[in-house]
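User: For my dataset I need records formatted as: sequence, then structure tokens, nothing else. Please produce one.
Assistant:
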Amino acid sequence: MMRISLPHGLLKEKTVCLRGRSALLSPKSGRLSTVYLLLSTSLGCLSTKKLLLSTKSGYLSTKMVLLPVKSECLSTKMVLLSTKSGYLSTKNTCLSTNPAFHWLLSTGGKVITGSRGAERNKKSCPAKL
């Protein structure tokens, strides 16, 4: 089960769809202009073969994107996050969900990680970008 929620309520775009092994989030307006976007699962992990966040304009304009799950790691074979500077793509990505260790993805394509918990989770959940 996947839940898409926003801090001020649910995402109301009618064109949003989740299907099969691929997850596609594409607002009708052509751009994600929310300040905060949260993707979470209640089953413990999100293990799709391909996770794609895209808009008609070709990039995400959110200030922050969080991908938390209840288990230790978010494992996908491919994660594509479109940004203004191009595509941020990873393979065999393992993102820790430790509260002290999370990923912040900016619109400029930069990746910022939390300092605490990074070394502790480095071996059990290595992330490569």
